[in-house]
Amino acid sequence: MDRPLILVVEDDKAVKNLITTTLDIEGYRYHTAGRAQEAMVEAVSQKPDIMLLDLGLPDMDGMEIISKVRSWSKMPIIVVSARSDDEDKIEALNAGADDYLTKPFNVEELLARLRVSLRRLHDFSDAAQEEAVFTNGGLEIDYSSGCVSLDGKELHLTPIEYKLLCLLSRNVGKVLTHNFILNDVWKSALDSDVTSLRVYMANLRKKIETDSSHPKYIQTHVGIGYRMMKIE
């Protein structure tokens, strides 16, 4: 099996060298880009497994790159940025990023985030082997193709949104706690990750609920977790 290919999008040479040296030591393949336009060409032509993305690029804000990539790819995107405000993290997650690491960072934490993203890729691959089609009201999930539709119209979900929806669908009627969901999707249960979970659930609801303020598919149990309701 080929070693995972990582696209490092970073214009700071010192940070780029730190990341690529770490990837070298750990046996990852990588390509680098210092500008947004170069990053888009690499993403299309090389089809990397994961993108490590700095937001402060000279020719385009990283948030725009996330949105552009998400319009055609479910490739995991890990933001590595000096922007440390919660608002920046939430904006990146809303745009479609899968994870967010603040500079300065510990290389061991970076490697841990990479391993989690790679496990997610394997999970999606395993799910694609399933043949069952889940139907609940107007919601349909074809596990074999990874496609989701609502009332016959295909929905475009990010990898994390799809993972969350599949987890809920396989546990219809059950209340899944925050920790259970975090351990399954993020492979961790840190209190700080609950904020990310809420952002993803809010975005998922916007896509599958006719009225997200009065949801019929995904019910919130305040302070506990979430449950997918069975639509008769």
UniProtKB/TrEMBL annotation:
Superkingdom of source: Bacteria
Protein's organism: Anaerostipes caccae (strain DSM 14662 / CCUG 47493 / JCM 13470 / NCIMB 13811 / L1-92)
UniProt DNA-binding residue ranges: 131-230
GO MF annotation terms: phosphorelay response regulator activity; transcription cis-regulatory region binding
Function: May play the central regulatory role in sporulation. It may be an element of the effector pathway responsible for the activation of sporulation genes in response to nutritional stress. Spo0A may act in concert with spo0H (a sigma factor) to control the expression of some genes that are critical to the sporulation process.
Protein name listed in UniProt: Stage 0 sporulation protein A homolog
Sequence positions bearing 4-aspartylphosphate: D54
GO cellular component: cytosol; protein-DNA complex
UniProt cross-references to PROSITE patterns, sorted A to Z: OMPR_PHOB, RESPONSE_REGULATORY
Domain Response regulatory: 5-118
